[in-house]
Write a structure and sequence with these properties.
This protein has about 575 residues and is α+β, with helices and mostly antiparallel strands. It has 14 helices and 29 strands. The chain is globular. The chain starts with 14 loop residues before the first strand and ends with a strand. This is Alpha-glycosidase.
């Protein structure tokens, strides 16, 4: 038993309260090294009467480690605990400080979870677990009100450039809510809708005004109300890392330099305000002069932005915020932001743009979730660009699951492309078979899936600006077969809770393999997902416990013989099978 590989920490995602009565405990070991782990746990003030022995199950794995877990419901919301680890020929005890040959006689030196304080329980909004998101880039979705078009607007459907406009607006979204309902969407994430100079609106000029080319606050309120009538939640984009160059405080700074009363609203390295050798003399997003970085530690800046965060939730009833460049803003600001937003709407969803491992923001004091680009990369690396084999893919997914509390994984924002990437179909080189496999995994995995507008009808596009084409509304030019496929995915997800919040376990994922089998299950459902990216039909033989399965795509029955489910899937094929109980 490799003791150096064994790790546990009595906080963060290793020991945490899942709800007001339940603690989740996790421990890491070298892969395939430890076969059984038992948790010795009890109340430190009443040890002999409360101590219990609970088995941990191997929950997930990556390339180097196994992760075991169990849940405990301590009678007095406190816990002292130690681990008993067993391999083929060795067993050992582990307390907070050392490894022991014998079971600890007292709980004095064990790990401790001091108390489940309800205020500390990380509780993301429950509705997100059941949500199917749709990302809309307002300028390119639909032009519903030509009267508010910007000067020089181009005919709908032209070539997108970084600086051109096609007149998309909020009325255009209102006009197509029937389409979103037909697809099955239950939540919309809008890129910024506030006053700005660009087509993408990430250079905010006025945070308290809807962009004049999109409509006004009444239009936004109407849109939100109509969405809510259809059971669709609305998420807006908050650009609080930086403003635009036309933001009034920055305009004052440009005009008055060191004498500006707003000089501490920004991070100025030196005066005068200028750009030297392509680098602004002030901090910005990237090195973009149009986007000066805000000083979110400044009390006046903080007061202003928190007012904005509260205002739109109260004014139009939005359901949360997506936070642009969230990892470059200080943690303390986000803690105060969370407090403000949750006070305005306890069910608001706070989604941070973080492209990497995000656990520092997902401890319950800042975000509910992050944009799950590590998930995006893993899915695309396996299904789309063949950079991973099945074993590496399963390990990558396992690593991601191991990093977060379960409630964070349940509301993760799982996307396959966005306004910041090439479109999924383009990444697939136009191969819809690959695209369907990637989307199928997205919709049968833990977390909330998000469709980038137009993917469902076969829109393509290279990296920005090509990924920001005008939505295609001519049905003759839409891929309606692909639309029907996405409809089916959404229907399956919304009708089977196991696909949303059930446990996930990889059953097959071999080195050099091109196919995976995984299980999603809860107390009522057991669903198998089989996927192959082979160019030839594949025979799957899976050991199962049920006697019969129903194919959720075709409705056909799949028999089981001698405890083995045998099924052939076509090239780049799949099957989603539900066990028939009883």
């Amino acid at each position: 038993m490799l003791l150096e590989a064994i790790y546990h920490h009595p906080k963060q995602h290793w020991a945490y309260a899942y709800d007001k009565d339940t603690i989740h405990i996790r421990i890491r070991t070298k892969r395939d090294d430890v076969h059984q782990i038992t948790l010795l746990a009890g109340d430190k003030y009443d040890w002999e009467k409360t101590k219990m022995y609970l088995p941990l199950r191997k929950w997930t794995s990556d390339s180097m480690f196994d992760y075991f877990t169990c849940e405990v419901k301590p009678p007095y919301h406190r816990l002292r605990y130690a681990f008993h680890l067993e391999s083929d020929n060795e067993s050992i005890w582990m307390d907070e400080n050392e490894f022991l040959e014998e079971e600890p006689e007292t709980p004095d030196r064990m790990f401790e979870f001091p108390y489940i304080n309800p205020v500390d329980v990380f509780t993301p909004p429950a509705w997100v677990k059941d949500a199917v998101f749709y990302q809309i880039f307002p300028e390119r979705f639909a032009n519903g009100d030509p009267s508010n078009d910007p000067e020089g607007v181009l005919p709908w459907g032209g070539k997108p450039e970084r600086d051109n406009f096609f007149g998309g607006d909020l009325q255009g979204v209102i006009d197509h809510l029937d389409y979103l309902s037909e697809l099955g969407i239950t939540a919309i994430y809008f890129t910024p809708v506030f006053e700005a100079t660009t087509n993408h609106k990430y250079d905010t000029e006025d945070y308290l005004r809807v962009d004049r080319h999109f409509g006004d606050a009444d239009t936004l309120k109407k849109l939100v109300n109509l969405c809510h009538e259809r059971g669709i939640r609305v998420l807006l984009d908050a650009v609080f890392n930086h403003s635009g160059r036309t933001f009034k405080p920055f305009v004052d700074l440009l005009e008055n330099g060191e004498n500006s009363k707003y000089k501490d609203w920004f991070h100025v390295r030196k005066f005068p305000i200028d750009v030297e050798d392509g680098i602004p003399t002030y901090e910005t997003f990237s090195f973009e002069p149009l986007m000066p970085k805000l000083n979110t530690e400044n009390p006046e800046v903080k007061e202003y932005l928190l007012k904005v965060a509260e205002y739109w939730i109260k004014e139009v009833g939005t359901d949360g915020w997506r936070l642009d460049v969230a990892n470059e803003v200080d943690h303390q600001f986000w803690r105060e932001f969370r407090s403000t937003v949750k006070k305005a709407n306890p069910e608001a969803y706070i989604l941070g743009e973080v492209w990497n491992e995000s656990s520092p923001w997902l401890q319950g004091d800042q975000f509910d979730a992050s944009m799950n680009y590590p998930f995006t990369n893993a899915v695309n690396d396996f299904f789309v660009i063949d950079k991973m084999d099945a074993y590496q893919f399963a390990n990558s997914i396992g690593r991601q699951l191991s990093r977060y509390q379960l409630q964070a994984s349940e509301v993760a924002f799982n996307l396959l492309d966005s306004h910041d990437t090439a479109r999924l179909l383009t990444l697939c080189n136009g191969d819809k078979r690959k695209m369907k496999l990637a989307a199928l995994f997205q919709f049968t995995y833990l977390g909330a899936p998000c469709i980038y507008y137009g993917d469902e009808i076969g829109m393509d596009g290279e990296f920005d600006p090509d990924c920001r084409k005008c939505m295609e509304w001519d049905e003759k030019k839409q891929d309606r077969e692909l639309f029907s496929f996405y409809q089916k995915l959404i229907h399956l997800r919304l009708n089977h809770a196991a696909l949303r919040t059930g446990e996930i376990q990889f059953i097959e994922a071999e080195p050099q393999g091109k196919r995976i089998v995984f299980e999603r299950k809860n107390d009522k459902e057991d669903i198998l997902v089989l996927m192959s990216k082979s160019e030839e039909p594949e025979q799957f033989n899976v050991s199962v416990k049920s006697d019969k399965y129903i194919d959720l795509f075709s409705g056909m029955e799949q028999p089981v013989n001698n405890g083995e489910l045998s099924i052939v899937v076509p090239a780049y094929g799949y099957a989603v099978l539900q066990a028939v109980k009883g």
